[in-house]
């Protein structure tokens, strides 16, 4: 009992200290904003010679990196002569961004202090004309913008925006981070004809497509793959993950509505066994190769997770499952994507949604053949 009370007290003190630090950081940020920062929006034209752009998103979550793709495509289409570089944290995500139109170099933040200083020197040598922070509350993003030495800086204005910005958007109207990033650019820049994008996108290179074909052939061998091909990812972090019983219900309901479908389970690297029987399992560590494999599927089903957003970016209709997160902020953004939550989040409803998407795709194929 004594140890239990000690653990509870430790947890309580940890929460108090964390709240104290957060409150003090907020007070400091508001003070710095009044002295140095950007509390009010600033909409103005870009410098006419804006050619080199750096987008900073220092976050390791796959979904957050994919949320950059509408902004990157908007930048490339609206500033066709510009070269767009990106600074991220996870080298595994690099290939997903390198193949986007207009993207030049994808920098990866180094972990050691020596390498961080080296990266800062390299960034300053690029002489960036514009640095963009598409998130509203990242200290790391702001520091990287300062270290880059860019002569123009773009971000969201607010009472805790302690960085002095040349271009600042008001608090975003949209809740989805991908839409907020595009809104930032549209609301910060004046006298520029914009071509905006509102869906995620990746374009795997030929080498990734070839590797995906090898994984596909290894999974199916000489077997005749029956359509539709339904991919699914049954894993997610924390409360976002649905129980195995939910997936069993979904599988039974799907067998009733699409008895001829081929099920392909995407497993995390290192996961040796499939969750469901009578399904083909594939585990791929390279994200661009996984995206290329997903293009061979007709529908993808997953809880709120990186693979859910990757499938949407690959152009596959996605049925997103939201148990504990809000689809308004994290929905899969892509062609034919839908989200289920609340009372609609059942195996039967998910199977019905898959069947409707598959039927619509089949009608489209028939129309094209005609």
From TrEMBL:
Family annotation (Pfam families): Glyco_transf_9
**Keyword annotations from UniProtKB, A to Z:** Glycosyltransferase, Transferase
InterPro entries in the cross-refs: Glyco_trans_9, LPS_LOS_Heptosyltrfase
Quote the Gene3D superfamilies the UniProt record gives.
Glycogen Phosphorylase B
Give the organism, scientific name: Salinisphaera aquimarina
Task: Write the protein's name.
Answer: Glycosyltransferase family 9 protein
Concerning CDD domains, the annotation shows: GT9_LPS_heptosyltransferase
